[in-house]
Amino acid sequence: MPDFQNTLDRFFSISENQSTVGTEVRAGLVTFLTASYIIFVQPAVMAQAGMDFGAVMTATCIASAIGCLIMGLWANYPIALAPGMGINFYFTFTVVLGQGISWQVALGAVFLSGIGLILLTLLRFREVIINSIPEDLKIGIAVGIGLFIAFIGLVQGGLVTDHPGTLVQLGSLKSLPALFTIGGVILIATLLQRKIKGAILIGMAVMAGLGLPLGLVQYQGLVSVPPSLGPTWMQLDILGALDLGLLTIAGVFLFVDLFNTAGTLVGVGHQGGFLKDGKLPRARKALMPDSVGTTAGAMLGTSTVTCYIESAAGVAEGGRTGLASVVTALLFLLALLFSPLARMIGGGYSPTEGVTLYPLTAPVLIIVGSMMAANVARIHWGQWDESLPAFLILIGMPLTYSIADGMALGFIAYPIIKLLCGKVREVHWCMWVIVLLFVARHLTL
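RESULT FIELD:
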């Protein structure tokens, strides 16, 4: 066993990154637990497009594992990948149900976007984008993702609900999920303050134990046979997606993944201390997993694969190397056999019909969001040409419920303010390209 641990240490440079094998394994587990909801949410969403629920679940686990393995073994970062939330709703409700396009053709468009991402990665264009982003905007992205994660946690925990007049409001603090979420936040915060190793994982385990008798967590068994992949395997229609009128759909898939992944890498990179002089080492390697995962996912039968902001939970647990991602990948594959257990941990609780809450993972998202928000002090608030675009990004992400849309607000404002202030030479040429892409995307929506 010591020899095996030494091999892992050398391969992943664990000691060099001031971590341990145990810490990386724990971080990978935490990341999986906080992201495991996608195993069941993804097929539930795509089933409404006419796809087989079980097949999409299997495709989701395999595509996620592929992306995580490439990220861990090749790029050596503790960043997990899975089909992205938001873009899956676009796939189902806008493309398939809204425009009447078959899910097979929609998968063909996802495949084309994956190929496009691979080409852009090989040409280093995506790497140039990340490295050209100004430091204050990178900080704004990190903080914005933190606020976005916390907002998701507040919603999933029942502490924030919708309101027809004000859009959102405080949820009922008398409800069991809300009380459970508050208790979970306090528990994990206490463990963190006491410097207890595995604080997040211990907190989740305690909450799972408490949730069983309270009915918030439903025991559904341990082992089941993996659903068949047959109904969706290689059912994509690439030729149909090559129609000129549908290439814009592939473009949207590509665009959203391009900036979601860029934002997540920068945000989690800031949190984990991966950025060196404002740049992400091994950026091209880190940008390939979502490209390959998206392409493979389309063939398997699921929508765009992207880097997951829930990776911040694993980084908060101490994950610093790709071993954490490898652990997450293996757990996605194991979930095919232990899907009832994964559903118990990452599954939802439905207090009323049409409402699903996730009180077990919600406290983790709130805690991680608060950690990432600490970066806000690093923004140069006295320089309006830097701070205002950063502020638009950090406030835009949670309020638009989108990493890409939040980035659009700040990225469009940044070069324009610089131009009007006579500082146009401070704007990297790539920033102008990004602005044009954002404007083009929103003009075609």
